[in-house]
Specification:
binds zinc ion; 2 domains; 424 residues; four-stranded antiparallel sheet
């Protein structure tokens, strides 16, 4: 175990990263890039900053392996965080204050500045122990995950930079576990952000008539809510996990005729719209959902139209569902489980991540990608007020990554035993 002095330095470095304001919509990527590069420097890692889009730096760090013919390992983390309602936090979201229990309060303490720093701290420890990786290890610190990753991980995934990295496996973020079992994610739900619009005849607020915009919209909302309940019931009954059903939540409602005191009360408006955040597991039947949207949720026969603000595919570039094998057919899965157990961790059942992460871009390329954030006995506070991570839990996570990096960078596929095929 690290000395008291080393532990407090580790925590200070985490606090320093947390205190950089990388909140959307205007993250300070200059500061975060500078910070990550200074860490890389202190670890003698190779570094490269790629701006696929100006002002959106992807920071790549490399610990070269002793056998460059072996494909590499990529550990990804995003540098941006979601915004905070400052007044609703007990300790300010940029303060990284540590309370008497050792809980570190900050936006990004769980999602996912912890993980980015833990990768670096694990490397620091492995280096000082004299460990030498066989495979090259890359860290990517990417921008804009919280707004879709289009200028960050998506560009990286489809770049020559990534091709030249010759990556075999990607690790990206997961979720904390309220119990003692670490959570591993082999897939995630993809977002469809749907806006439906209704039109209808305007009229007097006292008149009962069919086909008003509001009535047309509410028929849809009733149908959508019945569907939502049918999915939620499966979760409540314990038949399906959160990531295994289609979720639908209302994101906004927009209708009414504004007046200086609020809204006109006795006029039925001629237009009304609503937006929905829909999340779809990779194995769901999207054709039947499309049909449901066109025929029940926004039928033209009821004067309705719809559009998608975001419609992410559930399949990779070769038409296969975006899933990473979560059994021993995937050596990376097995290695990960073994490495976590070796660090004295317990593991729950493989799960589908209920929201979206950058891992989907790597899975789209056909690469295996596993979602994992080493936090147990921790409430799930991503995007919530008072996000925190206990410092002991943070330190334990570094041990876990130490074990994972050792196992991953040392892995030689069967039949390769240090001798390449051509040589045999
Ligand atoms: C359209 S991509 C949105 C990505 C975002 N990721 C984390 O919360 C999410 O809402 O899941
Ligand atoms: Zn995240
Ligand atoms: Zn997030």
């Amino acid at each position: 175990a690290p000395s008291q002095d080393e532990q407090s330095k580790i925590i200070s470095r985490f606090q320093e990263y947390l205190q950089i304001n990388t909140a959307q919509p205007s993250p300070d990527y200059q500061k975060s890039t500078h910070f990550i590069l200074s860490q890389a420097n202190s670890l003698s890692l190779e570094s490269q900053v790629v701006e696929f889009v100006k002002g959106k730096p992807v920071v790549l760090l490399k610990w070269p392996g002793s056998d460059p013919s072996l494909p590499s390992i990529l550990l990804n983390s995003h540098t941006d965080v979601v915004p905070s309602e400052y007044s609703k936090w007990v300790h300010p979201p940029l303060g990284a204050h540590i309370d008497e229990q050792g809980n570190i309060f900050a936006r990004g303490s769980q999602d996912m500045k912890c993980v980015g720093m833990q990768y670096l701290e694990a490397i620091r420890r492995l280096k000082s122990s004299g460990f030498q990786p066989k495979r090259s290890l890359y860290l990517s610190f990417v921008p804009d995950e919280e707004i879709g990753g289009h200028d960050g991980a998506e560009k990286l995934a489809y770049s020559d930079v990534l091709k030249n990295m010759n990556v075999d496996i990607v690790l990206d973020e997961g979720l904390p576990s309220p119990n003692e079992n670490y959570r591993l994610f082999y897939a995630e739900r993809t977002p469809w952000w749907l806006v439906i619009k209704a039109t209808g005849a305007p009229g007097h607020g006292a008149k009962l008539y069919d086909n008003s915009a509001m009535e047309n919209l509410f028929k849809s909302i009733e149908s959508i809510r019945r569907f939502r309940a049918s999915q939620f019931d499966l979760v409540k009954a314990g038949l399906k996990a959160e990531g295994e059903v289609i979720s639908v939540n209302v994101a906004f409602l927009k209708a009414g005729t504004p007046s200086p005191t609020g809204f006109v009360m006795n006029l039925q408006p001629s237009e009304a719209e609503a937006g929905f955040d829909i999340r779809i597991p990779p194995t769901a039947n999207t054709e039947s959902l499309e049909k449901r949207i066109a025929e029940e949720w926004a039928p033209a026969s009821r004067n309705m139209t719809f559009e998608f603000k975001q419609k992410v595919t559930t399949h990779d570039d070769l038409g296969r569902p975006l899933l990473t094998a979560s059994d021993n057919s995937n050596p990376w899965w097995t290695l990960l489980e073994e490495a976590i157990k070796k660090a004295n961790g317990k593991i729950g059942k493989p799960e589908i991540f209920p929201a979206s992460t950058d891992a989907r871009y790597f899975r789209q390329l056909g690469l295996p990608a596993i979602g994992f954030s080493p936090m147990v006995n921790t409430p799930i506070l991503l995007h919530d007020h008072n996000e925190f991570l206990n410092q002991a839990e943070y330190l334990r996570g570094i041990n876990v990554y130490e074990s994972i990096i050792k196992a991953y960078t040392s892995f030689i596929p069967p039949g390769r035993d240090g001798v390449s095929r051509d040589e045999l």
